[in-house]
Every structure is written in structure tokens, then in C-alpha cells.
């Protein structure tokens, strides 16, 4: 865990199925230990783009404990240009 209760994550892509893509939900790869993932449910997430726009969201659930991936919902939706960008996860 980094300073001040913040973790770093990387946007891996939109949550999707075979025939549908959920533009308001993204998969986040969390750069932390697997044991921390369960406590991240409900944590706030902040993403910023190069233009200074701020996208705020919340962690919904754990997608994969083995691969350290969680699902987060954002409002407004995260644009496709943020795939691969770093985000901050506020741990309380």
C-alpha cells in the first residue's frame, strides 16, 4: 500500500461479454497484493486524462483474485483513450 491510503491501478479495458460492452464499467489491474483486493470493494477511484478531466468511480466487485483485477463503475463513462492509464484507488 502506498502513502495516505492510495493504491495505483491500471485500466485494462471495458467490462464486456460476447455480445455487449459496458461503457460505464472498466476492469482495473491493481498494483498491490492479492490479500488487499477484498477490502477494496466500495473504494473510490479517480482517473484523470491529459486534458485535465476527472472521472470518479467506485469499485463494484473483485473480478479475479489471482490476477488482481477489480470491476469499477464510473460516472461519467471513462473514454477509450484512458485504457492503459493509471488511476488512484482511495483506500479507507
TrEMBL record:
Keyword Cell inner membrane: no
GO biological process: translation
MF GO annotations: structural constituent of ribosome
Keyword terms: Ribonucleoprotein, Ribosomal protein
Any coiled-coil regions, as ranges: none
Family matches, as InterPro entries: Ribosomal_eL33, Ribosomal_eL33_sf, Transl_B-barrel_sf
Alphabetized Gene3D superfamilies for the sequence: translation elongation factor selb, chain A, domain 4
GO cellular component, one term: ribosome
Family per similarity comment: Belongs to the eukaryotic ribosomal protein eL33 family.
Protein name per UniProt: 50S ribosomal protein L35Ae
Amino acid at each position: 500500500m502506498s502513502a495516505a491510503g492510495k493504491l495505483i491501478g491500471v485500466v485494462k479495458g471495458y467490462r464486456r461479454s460476447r455480445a455487449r460492452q459496458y461503457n460505464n464499467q472498466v476492469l482495473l489491474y491493481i498494483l498491490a497484493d492479492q490479500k488487499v483486493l477484498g477490502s477494496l470493494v466500495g473504494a473510490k477511484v479517480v482517473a484523470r486524462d491529459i486534458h485535465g478531466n476527472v472521472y470518479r468511480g467506485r469499485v463494484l466487485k473483485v473480478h479475479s483474485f489471482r490476477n488482481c483485477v477489480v470491476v469499477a463503475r464510473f460516472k461519467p463513462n471513462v473514454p477509450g483513450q484512458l485504457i492503459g492509464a493509471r488511476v488512484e484507488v482511495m483506500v479507507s
